[in-house]
């Protein structure tokens, strides 16, 4: 459903069946849970709906639309994004439940498709700098025991070969991720040339450059050897906010998508105040057109040691055009 979009469902009493904000709350620096998760009302999570317009319409099992400006907390409540959401809702036939979908206005309503051959798509998908969101379901590898050892890329290859009819995959998503693999392939050679032409001041500047697309594909290039990274957990499974997770896009992707097209957003971790060295992130969204309604094609970022940040920002790296 896009960078900020999500689906949710409620009962005819207004209680939540499923919602991305149905999660542990944070208080006094410690996690605390609501005593009874079955009694969380829609008004507690969609709290900007002060007049309960959305809630009442869904409780009354109506079909319609509703819009409002919302503040979306990210990074475990440490940062806030201001979005304008359009809500679409209807009743679920044969049940006492109602379904809602929220889409962020602007780029959130648009996407693009492109066609490439399976051969060239698979060729570029297998490059060593390419990764797919492990927690995203391109292919359902849980349905049959013999598929559970497969990575998503391995499952995609088997699916496209037609050798395993029992392997069920998202055909449209796979076509889109193959397209992303092909059109971003030149970045590998471009970033490699930057590494080879790096100045003698190799300890100053960018440590990692990476690009993520809306299909969960990412390309990562190290400008230093792994042991020299300021943050060893950066873009690893331990970095939950930095990688594509099952239920959301990475934090750097979300924040860059809400900036003025063509501009960068710079971020420091909140823990940097007590550290001598930290990572500064510079991220920007890549759009097809220079306007708010253009779909976000990808987000590209660079990570720099904070000790070298002033040097890097004075003469920023050209990360290339997509």
UniProtKB/TrEMBL annotation:
It comes from the Eukaryota. InterPro entries: Ca_channel_alpha-2/delta. This is Voltage-dependent calcium channel subunit alpha-2/delta-3. It comes from Ataeniobius toweri. The lineage of its organism: Eukaryota, Metazoa, Chordata, Craniata, Vertebrata.
